[in-house]
Design goal:
The complex is a heterodimer of chains A (about 325) and B (about 325). Chain A has helices at about 25-40, 200-205; strands at about 10-20, 50-55, 60, 80-85, 90-95, 105-110, 130-140, 150-155, 160-165, 170-180, 190-195, 210-215, 220-230, 230-235, 260-265, 270-275, 280, 290, 300, 305-310. Chain A is globular, with a radius of gyration of 19 Å. Helices cover about 5% and strands about 35% of the residues of chain A. Chain A is mostly beta strands and about 325 residues long. A six-stranded antiparallel sheet of chain A has the order 3-2-4-5-6-7. A five-stranded antiparallel sheet of chain A has the order 1-8-9-10-11, with helices on one face. Chain A has one domain. Chain B has helices at about 25-40, 220, 250-255; strands at about 10-20, 45-50, 75, 85, 95-100, 100-105, 115-120, 130-140, 155-165, 170-180, 180-190, 205, 230-235, 235-245, 250, 270-275, 280-290, 300-305, 310-315, 315-320. In chain B, a hairpin with an 8-residue loop joins strand 4 and strand 5. Chain B is globular and about 65 Å long. Classes of the chains: A mainly beta (about 325), B mainly beta (about 325). The interface of A and B includes residues 226, 241 and 266 of A. Strand 13 of chain A pairs antiparallel with strand 14 (about 235-245) of chain B, so a sheet runs across the interface.
Amino acid sequence: MAIPARTRTYSYGVNQTFRSTGVALSDAQRLMRALKNSLKTLGSGAWTVVKSSDGTTVDTSDLWDADAKLIWGTGSHSWIVLRQIGMATNFELCIDLNSATTTNATLAVSFAAGFVTGGTASARPTASDEKVLISAAAWHSIPASTNHQLHVMVGHDGKVTRFFFTAANALRGYADFSVAKGTITQWANPSVAFWTSTLPSTTNLWAAANVFGIHAGVILSLYVGNHVYGSVPFNSADVAYRAGGRLNSVSNDYPFFEPTLICATSGYRGRWGKLEDVYWAPQAGPPLSTMYPVATKIWVQVGGLIVPWTGDPLTTVM
Amino acid sequence: MGIPTPELTWDYTNINVDLNSTGNGVNDHKQMDKKWKDMLVALGFSVKLSCSSLDWAVRSYDTWTSISYLPLQPYFGDYDRPWIVLKNCASMGGLELCLLRQEWSGSNENNCRFFMSRDGFSGGSRNSDPAGNQWTFLDYGAHWYWTASATTFNTAWHGFIGRDPISGDIWSQRLFILEGGVVRHYYGFEKLKNPVSGITDPTYLFMLGLGTAAGPTHGNLNRGTSQPYRACINGSLQTVYLSCEGYVDYSLGEKLAVPHDITGEWPLLKAGVVCEGQGRRGYLGELYDLWFTSSGLAAGDMFPGDGSKQLITFPNIVVPWDGVSTPLLG
């Protein structure tokens, strides 16, 4: 199957490598601030900081201006709200370090209203239309005291943002904030969000409704559809003899299937659209660092998905 | 989701063909065999060889011209048996089908023997089968039609020819046989759309319809629990699935037996072709103008819902319709 072209251009902050300090807090502070900085600075589609807390002060500016300003805790702690107007007027991501464990955090999105209510040095602001993606739980799965990398890509118009973490040659977390394409006309704000501390996979995308959107004030829980046959998705890693997960033995290549967004909740059932610039990948076949095409490297496999990569023939995933 | 525009040019001359009961169960089954032959010929097949009680000679023309020439015969013993070999047109690979009116006891009219060959059949006589490099689809003791042997019944036949709009070559032949609103048989002969690189020979596939209780469904085409398509891929006969969009375990159409709650539209899902055979494994291509839909629809339901009758449901797949006719359902 021919390798598809990307539909938009991206600014990349990939292979940002961090050698472990051996101190969990220091590693977490550095990585989370690097993520915030990447979102805030990458290209014309960058996110903006709406408000933040450093555990002492709350302000509409970016108070996360030093690693030490990122305070984890259940009492006074840091949080930040980032806005992406490329997705919706007030599409916002709130990162709340409300745990004593630095590998935990609360990640919430507001699809339209914004985090306008509350917000103190000990409690994040809330939004009337918020969806908590992760609640005081693991925001990545990087092993302790392990060198790790951050990879961020932001579309030129802000409609697509994806990032993932790697460590010890494995994917350690993945997130997608994007505007769906090919949507039903009634979906006025087709912004969707997904964050996993592990990897995007058949298990947490195809078999579970973990992508979230909103329609008419109701949060949509969405499955990510794939081509299926014989009761398994094409790229099933669980059934090795299946056609997916392996090179096509006729064409000697892999298929690229578009991930669709399907809701099974009564009142909202049906296909709502597709994810843009991402494809299902064979999971049992190529490893994390596989590039498509091999020579020009415009896509990279991350878990069960294939996402845009730099296109630099010399840049591979660290 | 709008209604897709068919890519092939469709000939609807052979839809809504009514086959009423003769009033005699044995004759009803005989006329099924003859009509099967007549319809496939109308869709582009030709009679290569035949043998019947007309004269019990092997002829290179059609001797299945009357049901009175088609006695069903026992399988064991050298009984005279009617048989016919049909050859498909060149653009569909020249596949040959052989139907023999012969079964275990010679009394079960809803049974027959059924073979196909890519390389072709030859030989045969009044009491011996034509032979070839063949694949057995049904052998003695197997139903080719669902309705019991002595039962009388009416059927409705819908035959479709899809042509390449440029060359006029036949690229698709479909035959649906309905009884009492249920699709009992589905025959599909298809040229592969968008074949992956590396497929050189001859890029067609075919479905031979067993008598079933439900017809072409998600279960027997997508999940593969019954009789999936077969395909010749680079010279090798393979069993293939038709894939489509789905989640959790099954196709979207099987999971959601309702139209979209917001748009009110029923799904139309592209049908892909997937093979697991060694050396032929992978996603091989797609089908022209055939979509999976929701199991909440029934055979004969039309797309869209405005009366324009552009597509028809049979019952979990959707194909183009003539835009005018009300479908007979048998």
